[in-house]
Each structure stands twice: as C-alpha cells, then as structure tokens.
Design brief:
By secondary structure, this protein is mainly β. It folds into two domains: 144 residues, Beta Barrel (Thrombin, subunit H); 62 residues, Beta Barrel (Thrombin, subunit H), CATH 2.40.10. The strands form two sheets. Strands 9-10-11-14-13-12 form a six-stranded antiparallel barrel. A six-stranded antiparallel barrel has the order 3-4-5-8-7-6. The longest helix has 8 residues. It starts with 8 loop residues before the first strand and ends in a 16-residue tail after the last helix.
Length: 247
Amino acid sequence: MAARRVVVGGGVLVVAVLAYWLGGGGGGRESAGGRPGVTPTPSATPAVPDVFRKVGPSVVVVRAGKSFGTGVIAAEDGTVLTAHHVVKGSKNVDLTFADGTRAKAVVAAANPKRDVAVLKPAKLPEIVVPATLGGAVDVGAPVVAIGNPLGLTYSVSTGVVSGLDRTTGGTAEDGGLNGLIQFDASVNPGSSGGPLLDARGLVVGIVVSIADPGGDDAFAGIAFAVPIGVALGGDEGDGPPGDGPQI
C-alpha cells in the first residue's frame, strides 16, 4: 500500500504506518524526550479542565496560505513552536492568540527533518503566557492534546502514550520521521503543531501526524508527536525531510 505520508520513527522497533500531515490546508531516554536523564512524568490521571486552563492561553491558531494548524508559545519573548509542514513555503503566516490578538509572523527557524518550525510574531498579546516545557514520558502515561482540529479552535482531547521511538517511513522520495511519541488522544487536520501535554500540563511533544490506513483523513486512534527535547534541537536526526501533502 502507498502512504499519503509516512511520519513515525522506531529505533529498535520500527512500525510502518500510513500517515499524513495534519496541517489544515491542503533514552537517559532520548527516544522519549530528546534529553538524557530527564525524570519521567507522573502517570496520575490528569485533571483535564485544570490542564486546559493552564495551557489554553499558550495555544495559538496558525494560518499560512491555505494551511491551517496550531502553535504553542514556548518562551517569554513570544516564540511560537509549530509543525514545519503547516508553514512550509508560505510567505504569509498569521497567528491568532488565545485573547484574540492577531499578528503576522515570520519563520525564524525550521527543521524539516523533524517537522518543526519556530515563528516570531510581529505583535504580542498584552499578557504573554508561555507553556511550561517538560521532558520524557512513559508508555501508558496520560496525555492531553490541545489544538484546532477541522477549524474547531481550542479543542481538547485525552488519551495515553501508546508507544515511544516510533518511525513513520515510506520510500526515500516520501521521506519520514523517527523517534516519535505515539499516542491515542484524538487529533485531526488542523491539530498539527499543537502541544501534547503530560498530566501536569507540561509540553512533552509537538503533534505532527496521524495514521490514515483508510486514506480517508479519519482518525484511526494512532497519532504522533515530536518529543519536545527534539523539537527544541536536542537531536537533529538523520532522516530525509518530510514534506507531505497538507489538508
């Protein structure tokens, strides 16, 4: 079968799945968190409303041409992390912050091999609320995803970490990603670039893709995120760039 886009990495265990980008327009354990020696996050059930109240103000709506996705404020200067495929090739990136503030942004840095990009807004909200960044996660640990699936802004879903160090890959032409967190919280087109959070509301990953075995853009219970340590440049990786179709 041909993959519309494959994007999941497996170091010791490689799981090949059909995946596609979620942009809405078209071990320490390095495998888990990208930084050695990080203490795993707790496995207690998260109080989801509390997590949303804490992190919601840090989530950003990202529009780049016809592409629609999510971002998260990652620093006090307003730096926004998102998925590279959401903003790839676009000269016109618009952000909408949680308080309604709208701003143009430029792509300050990008790593296509990891499908992450850094955005610098031209304007910031009166109060900037950066998310708190976390570290490693364990299989079975609860997670929360916040994003803008199908244009439904600031949607929340919950699940668990289903696997670590996953790889999505197709042909060399298709490209792929590795070292990913697999999780089952529901995400859909428009969720790309959003934060994957642990039980304490710490950002443990950046959402990048879902499995799409039916080729119908429907969530199949398998999603993937780049570990936050990797997204911040902890591991550049050696896979080919991923530049899959945007929806």
